[in-house]
Amino acid sequence: MDPVTHALSGAVIYQLGFKRRLALLVLVLSAVIPDIDYVTRALGLEAFLKYHRGITHGVLALVLYPIFVGLFFRNKGGFLYFYALGFLGYGSHLLFDLSNQYGTMILSPLDWNRYSADLMFIIDPYVTLGFLFAVILCRHNKKRAVFIAACTVILLCWYAGGRYYMQGQAKQFLKSKIDANIYRVYPLPNGVLRWWFTVRHGDEITTGSVDLFMKKIFVYEKYKLNENDPAIAASKNDPNVKTFLEFAHSPYAEVIRDEQGSTVKWKDLSYSFLPGEKFTTTVVSDRNGKIVKSYFRF
Questions:
Q1: pLDDT profile of the chain (298 residues), mean per 10
Q2: Is the dihedral of CA 168, 171, 175, 181 positive or negative?
Q3: To 5 degrees, how large is the angle CA 38–CA 43–CA 47?
């Protein structure tokens, strides 16, 4: 999720009955601070893609950060009080990030694999606007602030549960229409009844959308896998490609050859509904197969 949504989530949690103004600061800060790993962007896209949602989004950070908060503010209201605030704020961030398809190393440092529920898009306006509306209502009706915040949390759980149900329905409908070995269903921006899909049957990947309202499958593209191509095999040794493959849900590579050599373009088909060359890695090699350059588009 985006930083604004995370900050608003901390503000909503505060309205659940926490009275001290310092609690608001701690909750909002705790709900945003896991994204401190954005500093890796200064080291380049490879570092950002590799480390964002890494150690600061894992279980170790969730345990250690509230301890730091509790110790720092213990003279302001007690260790356990501020430990709970830190845990709630930080934990809400990890849960929100886990809900979307970007992937989160939630088990780091025990496990560096990315996990995702694929329920919501990276930016979900329904969640953001819902939180914003709740914060405004709580500010103008302080006597019912706890009730408003509690209803907001319940509605959020209902929304997430509804998306989980719709995701399952989309996958079942997809299985009834397309024969494949692997089925993956991803959220579309602003979509609840429409979902993006990638399915793999043998060496072919098909992408498209499932429309539960119209009860239709829309096929967009079909891709033939050719990972035995020497240029593709060689590109996998590039650090950028290695990082990309750790991140991508549905990686696919295509090769373009000319007089100078070859260009291998990797893309994550789970994001192929986005315009332009988003979430791609390009590797350029000379005629001798030596990699000349590689770069991300993100």
A1: 94 92 95 94 84 94 96 90 96 96 92 93 93 95 94 96 96 94 92 94 94 95 89 90 90 90 93 86 89 87
A2: negative
A3: 70
In tens, the pLDDT along 21-67 reads 899 999 999 999 999 999 998 888 888 888 899 999 999 999 999 99
State CA 268 to chain mean position distance: 14
Long-range CB pairs of 152-155, under 8 A, 24+ apart, other chains included: 152/12, 153/12, 153/16, 155/130
Residue 154: per-residue pLDDT:
97
Beta bridge partners of 199: 183, 206
Token pair in block for residue 209: 């959308």
| Widest pairwise Cα distance in the chain | 73
* Per-residue pLDDT tens over the stretch 246-286: 889 999 999 998 888 899 999 999 999 988 888 899 999 98
Q: Are 41 and 92 in contact (CB under 8 A)?
A: no
- Any idea where the domains of the chain sit in the sequence? 3-162, 178-223, 226-297
Closest CA to 149 of 11, 1, 248: 11
